[in-house]
Amino acid sequence: MGFVHVHLIPYVHDMGFTHLTNAGAQFILALVSIAGALLTGRVSDRIGRRWPMAVTFTWRGLAYFLLVLLGLYPSYWLLYAAVICMGLSWSSTVSLLATSCADLYGRRGQGSVFGIVFGVMNWSSTFGAWVPGVMFDYSASYQSALYLNVMVAWVASGVILWIGEWWHRPQDVLSPAV
Questions:
Q1: Residue 48 has what pLDDT?
Q2: Are the C-beta atoms of residues 151 and 139 closer than 8 Å to each other?
Q3: Mean pLDDT by 10 residues, the chain (178 residues)
Q4: Cα–Cα nearest to 142, from 85, 72, 61
Q5: Could you count the other beta carbons within 10 Å of the beta carbon of residue 140?
Q6: What CA–CA distances, in Å, run from 63 to 48, 68, 86, 165?
Q7: Which of 30, 126, 156, 177 has the smallest number of CB atoms closer than 10 Å to its CB?
Q8: For position 165, what pLDDT does the model report?
Q9: Angle 19-47/76-90 helices, nearest 10 degrees?
Q10: CB 83 within 8 A of CB 63
Q11: By C-alpha distance, which of 60, 59, 78, 81 is closest to 70?
């Protein structure tokens, strides 16, 4: 997500879109992000964490792929499709990871475990902003960084499907009532 935080606005501007269009796209991304987190949390409570998390990373990969296409064929449709896909995945990972930590380690350990996970996510986001910047400095294009993001997101989705469901695992953690 580091790419989106740091490089999306200049990337969209470089594609010839106005500042107003760029701001509107950012607003849509933020609104869809809220809806995506709420929807994903509700769905994951019903069917488990694995499929919603895999779909979240699939949406993220699709968003980056649409941004690649936006660089080749600038259009409002591609821009808004990309930000909607990105918005669906933006905050969904946070709610899914928080509940997964609670599922795996119990509510007593959730704060500590999720704190570590969230710290790693922030460092990864920092790295995800720095690497595309370096790639842009050497190539004067974001295309290779976007392809890298597509690959990472879709590999993450595949890994999540491969590791199996962890939601219904029995926990070895004492309940708060004990």
A1: 86
A2: no
A3: 87 94 95 94 89 93 96 96 94 86 81 85 87 92 93 93 65 48
A4: 72
A5: 8
A6: 24, 9, 5, 25
A7: 177
A8: 64
A9: 40
A10: yes
A11: 78
Tell me the HSE value of 151 on the side-chain side, using a 13 A CA sphere.
Answer: 6
Query: Which residues have a Cβ under 8 Å from the Cβ of 111 and sit 6 or more positions away?
Result: none
Question: What is residue 177's DSSP assignment?
Answer: T
Determine the residue type at 4. V
Residue with tokens 């509700």: 42
Other Cβ atoms closer than 10 A to 85: 23
In this structure, the chain runs to a length of 178
Tell me the CA end-to-end span of the chain in Å, nearest whole number: 40
Contact 87, 28 (CB under 8 A): yes
- Helix, strand, coil content of the chain in percent (nearest 5): 85, 0, 15
Amino acid present at 7: H
Q: Which long-range contacts (CB under 8 A, 24 or more apart) does 62-67 make?
A: 63/89, 64/3, 64/146, 64/147, 64/149, 64/150, 64/153, 65/146, 65/150, 67/8, 67/11, 67/142, 67/146
Q: Which two tokens stand for residue 26?
A: 């950012």
Whose tokens are 């380690």? That residue is 105
CA gap 118, 97 in Å, rounded: 9
Nearest to 104 by CA among 163, 56, 54: 163
